């Protein structure tokens, strides 16, 4: 597309007698040379290895939404090469990426959250739950509709998406500028975000506290989640663990910013190349001390090793075995789903937990029981599984309302 921009720019210059005398096109290298100041415009192929060494004052970056994951060598090469200028300018033009963890979406979300005065962000998108044929939504996402954006293209695309469910995500992504998953997650983005209020620390001091522990393989993500039931709401606090020696490798393989989250304190990196169970046990001891914890759900996987560390620390934890098969997890999945749909949770929008929620799908056995599963091989769901387990034991330990004993008074 950079080459197309060059072609249009050179044609514009050729059609203007004034500009034509000021610009010399160099078609062989797709460059435009500004003669008075000897400035250059150059169209670059998106190759990270060949993009180093330049020093652009203005960088126009197109279609960053196509980048999967939080990192791209080409975009990094361009944006880190502007240090020679006091006030360089970057212009990013793209549809959004598919998911929250993709490069362009992270920039959009950072602009919204940080309020950085050096960043101006305009996002034209349709409302998330709009109908495919909602023409007001079309206009919201396409301000150039009926100018140089064809209305007929949207009419045809919406009709195709209505006929073919597999075409709906692509239409919503590319024409309505919505973030989409290529699969249907267990909890939709809108439902999950409706429960993103910050948890209340008071709930963990005075409510009923339950835990869920999902121990991973030695090289994967481990999650521990506490849920406090207080005044009819569920307050959520998660902790995540990953082997420090594998954080960069996992970030590249999964295309997820584990390294950034580790630096932000959102993931505990344990020494070595396997998740250190002594660190996990110590953190559980730290965060549960002084809290009215009624039960901590765990699966048998790797639990003997963790029990040794718990015993070594002299901890007395209310551990409750909770299998991760269909029969055991189905009530937990139902409890989590019910609380989320009724907007009774406050999970705080923890980025790692957000990722896990977005990666989880519910699958059924022949009896109709449900459990959570990964939608793709590299998608981590440990946090949402641990949350479901905590909700499951909370449902099992629900206190019955006190029943008063009838009293007969004789006067």
Number of helices: 16
Structural class: alpha/beta
Give Rg in angstroms: 27 Å
Shape: elongated
The largest β sheet comes out as: 7 strands, mixed
What is the CATH topology descriptor of the domain at 189-396? Nucleotidyltransferase, domain 5
Total count of strands: 14
Q: Helicity, in percent?
A: 25-40%
The first-level CATH class of the domain at 189-396 is given as Alpha Beta
Distance between the termini: 95 Å
Order of helices and strands: HHEEEEHEHHHHHHEEEHHEHEHEHEHEEH
| Uncertain runs | 400-411
CATH architecture of the domain at 189-396, please?
A: 2-Layer Sandwich
Strand proportion: 15-25%
Task: Look at the structure and give the mean pLDDT.
Answer: 88
Structure in words:
This protein is of the alpha/beta class and 411 residues long. Among the domains are: 135-174, no CATH class; 189-396, Nucleotidyltransferase, domain 5 (2-Layer Sandwich). The protein is 37% helix and 18% strand. It has 16 helices and 14 strands. The strands form 4 sheets. Strands 6, 7, 8, 9, 10, 11 and 12 form a 7-stranded mixed sheet that branches. Strands 1-2-3 form a 3-stranded antiparallel sheet, covered by helices on one side. It has a two-stranded parallel sheet with strand order 4-5. Strand 13 (360-364) and strand 14 form a beta hairpin. Helix 15 (351-359) packs across helix 16 (382-396). The protein starts with a helix and ends in a 15-residue tail after the last helix.
């Amino acid at each position: 597309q950079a080459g197309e921009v060059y072609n249009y720019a050179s044609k514009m210059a050729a059609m203007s007698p004034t500009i034509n005398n000021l610009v010399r096109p160099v078609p062989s290298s797709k460059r435009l040379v500004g003669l008075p100041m000897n400035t250059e415009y150059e169209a670059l192929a998106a190759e990270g290895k060949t993009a180093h060494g330049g020093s652009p004052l203005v960088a126009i970056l197109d279609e960053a939404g196509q980048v999967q994951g939080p990192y791209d060598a080409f975009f990094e090469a361009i944006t880190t090469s502007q240090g020679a200028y006091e006030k360089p300018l970057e212009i990013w033009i793209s549809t959004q990426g598919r998911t929250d963890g993709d490069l362009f979406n992270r920039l959009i979300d950072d602009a919204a959250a940080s309020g950085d005065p050096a960043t101006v962000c305009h996002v034209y998108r349709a409302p998330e739950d709009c109908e495919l044929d909602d023409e007001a939504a079309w206009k919201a996402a396409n301000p150039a509709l009926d100018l140089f954006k064809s209305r007929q293209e949207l009419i045809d695309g919406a009709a195709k998406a209505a006929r073919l469910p597999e075409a709906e995500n692509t239409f919503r992504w590319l024409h309505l500028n919505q973030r989409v998953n290529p699969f249907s997650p267990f909890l939709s983005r809108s439902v999950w975000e409706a429960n993103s209020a910050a948890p209340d620390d008071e709930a963990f001091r005075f409510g009923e506290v339950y835990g869920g522990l999902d121990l991973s393989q030695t090289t994967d993500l481990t999650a521990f989640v506490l849920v406090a039931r207080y005044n009819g709401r569920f307050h959520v606090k998660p902790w995540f663990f990953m082997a420090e020696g594998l954080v960069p490798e996992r970030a590249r393989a999964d295309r997820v910013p584990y390294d950034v989250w580790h630096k932000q304190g959102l993931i505990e990196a344990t020494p070595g190349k396997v998740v250190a169970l002594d660190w996990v046990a110590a953190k559980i001891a730290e965060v549960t001390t002084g809290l009215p914890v009624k039960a901590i759900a765990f699966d048998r996987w790797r639990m003997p090793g963790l029990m040794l560390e718990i015993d070594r620390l002299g901890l007395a934890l209310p551990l409750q075995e909770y299998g991760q098969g269909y029969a055991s997890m189905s009530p937990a999945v139902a409890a989590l789903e019910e609380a989320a749909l009724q907007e009774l949770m406050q999970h705080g929008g923890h980025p790692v937990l957000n990722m896990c929620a977005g990666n989880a799908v519910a699958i059924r056995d022949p009896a109709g029981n449900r459990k959570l599963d990964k939608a793709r091989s590299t998608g981590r769901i440990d946090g949402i599984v641990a949350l479901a387990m905590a909700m499951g034991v909370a449902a099992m330990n629900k206190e019955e309302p006190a029943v008063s004993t009838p009293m007969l008074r004789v006067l």
